[in-house]
Amino acid sequence: MKKYILFAFITILFSCKEESQPVPGTFGQVTEFGTEKPIANARMELYKCNSDGFASACFLIDSVFTDSEGRYQITYDPEEANYHVLTPVAERYFAGAEKILNSGLNIEQDFVLDPFAWLNLRVVNEAPGGEFDRIDYTYQAWTITGSPRESCIGSDVNKNHFELTRGANKDVLLLWEVYDSGELAGEYSETIFIAAHDTLDYEIRY
C-alpha cells in the first residue's frame, strides 16, 4: 500500500511541475501614441522566420485580435523556426515596430501605434511673380507621403496639398521659405498639432 501511495505522490508532483512550465508565447497591450488609449481589434500577426546566414524568409502562421482593452495573447513553438516575429496591424494606424521572439518563455510585449492624421495645406500666392518666385515648405517631427520638401512655384496660385501624416497627437513644426526672383526673402515657421484621425486645414500666404 505504501508503494502505491508513494508512486501516486510522485506522479502528482511531476504533473504539477509540467503544468507550471510557461507555454512559449507573448502577451501585452496595444495603445495609441499620445493618449495611451487601448486599441481594440488590432490584428497581431505572428510570423515564423528562418535564416541561412544570407537571407531570411518569414511566413505568417497565426494571428489574434486585441480585446476591448487592447490586450492580446499568442503562443508559438520556438523549435519550428530560427525565430518568430510579431507585428500589430490596426485600421487607421501605422504599423508598429515588430518584435522578434526567440525565447521559450511567455514574455510581455507592449506596442504603441501612431494614428493617422491629415494636413490639408493650401498655398496662396497673393502676388504672382516671375518663374523664379517660389515657396519651399517642409515638416519636422513627422513623415509625409512623397518628398519631405515641397516647392510651389510663383505661377502656382491657390495650390492645395493633401498629405497623409503620422504626426498625430504631437506638436510638429511646419517651416517655409519665400523666394523672390530666386533670392530668399523670408523664413517662417509655426508649430501645429493634429489630433488622432483628424484633419487640419492650414493656409500659407506669400
Describe this structure in words.
The protein folds into two domains: 23-113, Transthyretin/hydroxyisourate hydrolase domain (Immunoglobulin-like, Sandwich); 117-205, Immunoglobulin-like (Sandwich), CATH 2.60.40. It is 9% helix and 50% strand. It has one helix and 15 strands; from the N terminus they run H-E-E-E-E-E-E-E-E-E-E-E-E-E-E-E. The strands form four sheets. Strands 1, 4, 7 and 8 form a four-stranded mixed sheet that branches. Strands 3-2-5-6 form a four-stranded antiparallel sheet, with no helix packed on it. Strand 13 and strand 14 (183-193) form a beta hairpin. The radius of gyration is 27 Å and the shape is elongated. The protein starts with a helix and ends with a strand.
Briefly say what this structure is:
This protein has 206 residues and is mostly beta strands. It is built from one helix and 15 strands, in the order αβββββββββββββββ.
Q: Whole-number radius of gyration? A: 27 Å
Structural class based on helices, strands and sheet pairing: mainly beta
Extract low-pLDDT stretches: 4-10, 12-17, 142-148
At the first level of CATH, the class of the largest domain is Mainly Beta
Q: Alpha-carbon distance between the termini?
A: 98 Å
CATH architecture label of the largest domain: Sandwich
Secondary-structure element order, N to C: HEEEEEEEEEEEEEEE
- Overall pLDDT, averaged? 80
Number of domains: 2
Proportion of residues in helical segments: under 10%
The major sheet is characterized as:
4 strands, mixed
